[in-house]
Amino acid sequence: MCGIIGYVGPDEVVPVLLDGLRRLEYRGYDSAGMAVLGHDEIGILRAAGKLGNLEQKAYHEPLHGKVGIGHTRWATHGAPTEANAHPQTDSGGQVAVVHNGILENYGRLRHELLDAGVELQSDTDTELIAQLLGREEGSLAERVLAVLPRLEGQYAVVAVHQAEPDVVVAFRNGPPLVIGLGEEENLVASDVTALLHRTRRVVYLENGDIAEIRRDALRLLDVSGGEIERAVDTLVWDAARVEKGGYRHFMLKEIFEQPDAIRNTVRAYLDQERRGVNLDGLGFSREELVRLRRIHLVACGTSWHACLVGKFVLEELTGLPTEVDYASEYRYRTPLVGDDVLVIGVTQSGETADTLAAMEMAREAGALLATVCNVRGSSAWRLAPSQILTQAGPEIGVASTKAFTTQLVAMVLIALGLRSARGLADETDAELVSGLQRLPQAVERALAIDDEIFALGTEMLADATDSLYLGRGILYPIALEGALKLKEISYLHAEGYPAGEMKHGPIALLQEGFPVVAVVPGGTNRNKLISNLMEARARGAAVLAVADEDADEIADVADLTLRVPKVHSLLQPVVTVVPLQLLAYHVAVELGLDVDQPRNLAKSVTVE
Ligand code: AGP
């Protein structure tokens, strides 16, 4: 969602802001803008559409200054037009504001301002913040303190004021903001990818914090105006990992980074000597673990698919009944949660609003709370007392790939940690540990499928408007994930189904040439799925299968088969999803689409 960057330092600010916004592009946006504190007035540039449009404007209407704020907007209130792009200003043009989030009392504030005679220039809730700040008195931080009680909803706001040309002020309630502490310069951004190339020293703002940022000083206030301190964290991510590194797209690079991402995640939690994991009880006490009766997994999108796989893994390995919920549903129902439930929020970004709200709810209900998260220092990371960090490194492509496969690995690691703490460990654990150690090589082999095979697969899918992805058992969630990947980046409709359900509705879709992508499981489920495919073939469907090397019988029913190595059944989802990610990628490239920043999507969904 919206990207925010702010800078105070010795450099000309426009290139710094544009560079920061480029690095935030992956979050998804539909307009962009910047404000620069100049000598006489705040210079504002805004443009609808891609960042290139803003760059063009900056070239033709140059702004100069050393302090400024920039924004990429993902529209919520008002269409993605230039007038609605950020920064928004007050009527006098004295205050400029960029904002991520939604003001829930937008309607009331708007009417109050209109009744007071304010002429609003946009449809945005953001302008209301600028107008409110403009009507107060004192320094910008004092104005923020006065306005805060009037704002309801989620916001991360960065503002500048013409009267204080050396200050940027940031405040948040919900969406994240992080301050970058540099040499003779300080920055603020909506996430660390915009800061990494300038500094590794960061301060995460908490909800309610107000930051007054100067070139050589950072002052933090709480909502009552008292000075507070926050720890300085050092980032471990390497700036090179947020570059494409010779790949055509971030998504492709990230797909190929999966062996390393998995290797790092396994290594981080493997206890070599005991041939087990060092996640004993996930850090919960013995008494807490003895009380444990159930597990709830909450997440959105691709992370939710990881949870569906997690259910199979956790139930089989721990015997604990495991429920999986969409976070957006969980937070609005009345789940039976108490201190005998372990709630795990699974989130790549650690900033997904619904997942955070579900986790918060579980914490208030007294549940044991953990997170599987890819971003150290993110909101989920700080909310959960128990954290399992997937070591995928920064994921820039909107379509999640390496974060997903490391989440699948994390599910197995968690199950092993719970088994060891509950005294369940036996030879299964050693088998899984060795399977986890060999997994990166298996994924490498899954990545080695010939491009010509993908060309054939692409032909089958790219010409159709719809397709059906079928799976069974632990590979059924992989069918859902394969379909989601295709939908997200190729805009082709794809439906994921458990194969046994085909006869109960979706079979009506089948006709000559209709593509059916079969994710072929092992065990008894294999023959069942093959029977389902026979039924599909009988109705003219074109079958593309993803199957392990042992599944010879698939050749009789599939028009095209993508082979993956056979690994431990609980790890099979990890290798099986790889060709489906690549398939979606090739289809989107063939259709000439923007693979890394698909339309309407945001990488980090910080509003509900
Ligand atoms: C994945 O390809 C998606 N872009 C999306 O479904 C994503 O998984 C979802 O928004 C959840 O994000 P999170 O893992 O950061 O919480």
UniProtKB/TrEMBL annotation:
Cellular compartment(s): Cytoplasm
Reactions catalysed: D-fructose 6-phosphate + L-glutamine = D-glucosamine 6-phosphate + L-glutamate
Active-site annotation: C2 (nucleophile), K603 (for fru-6p isomerization activity)
Keyword Disulfide bond: no
Cited SUPFAM superfamilies: N-terminal nucleophile aminohydrolases (Ntn hydrolases), SIS domain
Domain Glutamine amidotransferase type-2: 2-216
Gene Ontology CC terms: cytosol
A Pfam family this chain is assigned to: GATase_6
EC identifiers of the protein: 2.6.1.16
The SIS domain, residue ranges: 285-424, 457-598
Example of a GO MF term: carbohydrate derivative binding
Entry keyword Cytoplasm: yes
Gene3D superfamilies: Glucose-6-phosphate isomerase like protein, domain 1, Glutamine Phosphoribosylpyrophosphate, subunit 1, domain 1
Major localisation: cytoplasm
Gene Ontology BP terms: amino sugar biosynthetic process; carbohydrate metabolic process; fructose 6-phosphate metabolic process; protein N-linked glycosylation; UDP-N-acetylglucosamine metabolic process
Keywords associated with the record: Aminotransferase, Cytoplasm, Glutamine amidotransferase, Repeat, Transferase
Assembly and oligomerization: Homodimer.
NCBIfam families (alphabetical): glmS, PRK00331.1
Protein name: Glutamine--fructose-6-phosphate aminotransferase [isomerizing]
Organism: Candidatus Sulfomarinibacter kjeldsenii
This protein's encoding gene: glmS
